[in-house]
Amino acid sequence: MQLHTHTWGEGDRVALLIHGMMADHRTWRRVGPALAERGYRVIAVDLRGHGASGRGEYRPELFARDVVETLPAGADLAIGHSLGGLTLSLAVDRLRPQRAVFSDPAWHLAAPVEGMGPEVFAQFKSAPKEQIRAMNPRWDEADVDIELETLALWDEGTALSLTSLFGTDLLPAAPAVPSLVQLADPSFLISPERAVLLEERGFEVRSVAGAGHTIHRDDFDGFMASLEGWIQPL
């Protein structure tokens, strides 16, 4: 599937952005321009079932295949958040960016307990503005409004498709390219023990103090600061 994309900048370097569950390219509304200011041409996708991209069957392997079919190989930088981090990890050996950043990646979905299964994620489709604001107190109001708009377009079947992955270990055995794992504080996806394991496997791991799961919306400045040494300087 050819995915919908949005581009910022016209730089010589190329950066790829892959969003998480329920979002689309607009989640990167501050990151895209910030990277463009640093000389990147930034390309952000809408994964299948999200934004302006098509609908269909949903599996991590298909998300990854779509990304490979849509985005250029050999980019200077690729960043994937949450589901986008999982997608990037499944596509990185084919995309072969110079560097990869996995922002609080969905590499371990805890076995569902009562009230916390994939059906609950699907119910966010109808979440009111007050709930989104309450769950994300550090977000700008613009991000709350964007979340409402992206939820209206999102196919909640993407959440239900992940049922078989709950309780499984999806951590990569090794980085295919130089890789940074950027974690929320605390991360509900990557435990401290798994963070140590990732470091042992060759990943660099950094946490953004006090940031929630969507780090780039919770603490944009902290998100950008944590990329020091991984992105083109101003």
Describe the structure.
- The chain is α/β, with parallel strands linked by helices.
- It is built from 10 helices and 7 strands.
- The protein has helices at 31-37, 60-70, 83-95, 118-123, 129-135, 141-153, 157-160, 192-200, 215-218, 220-226; strands at 5-8, 13-18, 40-45, 77-81, 100-103, 179-183, 204-207.
- A 7-stranded mixed β-sheet has the order 1-3-2-4-5-6-7.
- Helix 3 (83-95) links the parallel strand 4 and strand 5.
- The longest helix has 13 residues, at 83-95.
- The radius of gyration is 16 Å and the shape is globular.
- The model has no long low-confidence stretch (mean pLDDT 94).
Order of helices and strands: EEHEHEHEHHHHEHEHH
Q: Flag low-confidence runs.
A: none
Helicity, as a percent range:
25-40%
Biggest sheet character? 7 strands, mixed
Strand order of the largest sheet: 1-3-2-4-5-6-7
Look at the helices and sheets and give the structural class.
alpha/beta
Mean pLDDT: 94
- Tally of individual helices: 10
- In terms of DSSP E residues, the strand content is 5-15%
Give the overall shape: globular
Distance between the termini: 35 Å
Our Rg estimate from Cα atoms comes to 16 Å
Task: Please report the total strand number as a whole number.
Answer: 7
Summarize the model shown.
This protein is an alpha/beta fold. The protein contains 10 helices and 7 strands.
Features:
seven-stranded mixed β-sheet, 35% helix, globular, alpha/beta, 234 residues
